[in-house]
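REQUEST ID: PR-0412
SUBMITTED BY: lab tech R.K.
PRIORITY: routine
TASK: structure prediction, single protein chain
INPUT:
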Amino acid sequence: MNYNLSEFQASYGLSSQLPDSDRPEFVFSGRSNVGKSSLINKLCNRKNLARVSATPGKTATINFYRVDNVYFVDLPGYGYAKVSNAERQRWDDLINSYFEAERNLTILVQLLDCRHAPSADDRQMLEYLRYHGIPFVAALTKGDKLKKSQQSAALAEFEQLLAEYGCRKVFLTSAESGLGVEELRAFFASCLQEAEA
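STATUS: complete
OUTPUT:
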């Protein structure tokens, strides 16, 4: 997969707008402010492919990025308090309709801040993934903020915690230092090989 061939495709705010699924899709999910845009940018060697919002909760759309012959799908961030119930309902509908449609979903990457235990919203999302049998891995963000000695402990702790939700693999990442990015790319490549087999 050539990450240099990446471009923003479109943002969709309503389920009826979602495009047909004609290629493998790698989905990114996580709390507002956990660093989804930053990680997508780092994976694609781009500064501003995914716009990093200064205001958490701004990404109220599903954003599609074309990366070579696959889509990166960025789900709206959740868990931000300052949105109305109607807006939250629209997010829920949008996310539900994405997962209920016949999508070519290869793997979902659930982002979690490595410095904190999963929030109630994170756990709700993990329950959702387990309940619907959605295949996923976890990317622990902001790994550069931990000392080397803390990194392996955090990884082990999250591996144990996420195993009960059916998480396939846990990656410690940093959009700052590039930690874990090559491992994630290699994993995506293996997913595509599996899908083609």
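NOTES: The chain has five helices and seven strands.
REVIEWED BY: pending
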